[in-house]
Structure formats: C-alpha cells, structure tokens
Protein: Acetolactate synthase
Amino acid sequence: MRGWGCAFAVLSLVSTHVVAEASLPVPSGQPIYLDNVLLDENPGELWLRFRFVAPNIGQTVGRVGYDVSAVDMDHLCKTLAVPYVAQRELMPARVVISLSDTAVAFGESAPGVTQFFEAYRLENADCIWEEF
Structure:
C-alpha cells in the first residue's frame, strides 16, 4: 500500500517557476494547478520535483483523499513529467509529484496544510512508483 511521503529542506536548488492558469486534466476531475518545478541535486543525484496545488485535497468528509489523489499523481507523472524530462534531455534519479491544498514554499513547515507526495523512477518513458 502506498504511504505518505515526506518533504525535506534542500540546500542546493534550481527553481523553474511555472504558473498554470487552468486546471490540469486528471482522472478524478479535481482542480489541480502546477505551482513550480524544482531541479534538486541535494540528495546527491538529480531529483525533479513537480509541485502542484490541489485545493480540494484533505482527509475529512467531502475532500479528495489520498487514494484518489494517488491515481492523479501517477497520471501527472506520465503525462507531464515524462515529456518534460524527454524535451529537456534530463536524467533524474527520481521524479517527485506533490499535491498541496495551498501553495507552500519548498522546505517550509506548514502543519495545517494537507500535502500528498509520490516518488517515481523513470524507465522506458514510464513512471515506476518508488516507496519512500
């Protein structure tokens, strides 16, 4: 079973800020917006982090839970991360897809904010889920 990932501070970071004006299409139909893409070499290898705002996620009744959001994160990896990596000829060790119900600066603590994370390795233009 998939679990919660965890965020951690990054010391050496290159940021590409991207703003999506319209919600990205995902299987659940929930609104999801790209906040930014980070190229992170702090773990000793390149990790590509796609950070999204998904204002309806949460653990309470009426919110979009982790199980539904995990399918959306898989979709975002395949439809957004894979082409991004190919177009830029990058070779990341991992791709991390994160959803947050509100924008949070990378590495900052936000106790009241719901965040879901998944990590993948890319293999033959496919996203292979990696447990944290």
Notes: DSSP finds one helix and six strands in the chain. Residues 1-20 have pLDDT under 50 and may be disordered. The first helix runs from residue 66 to 88.
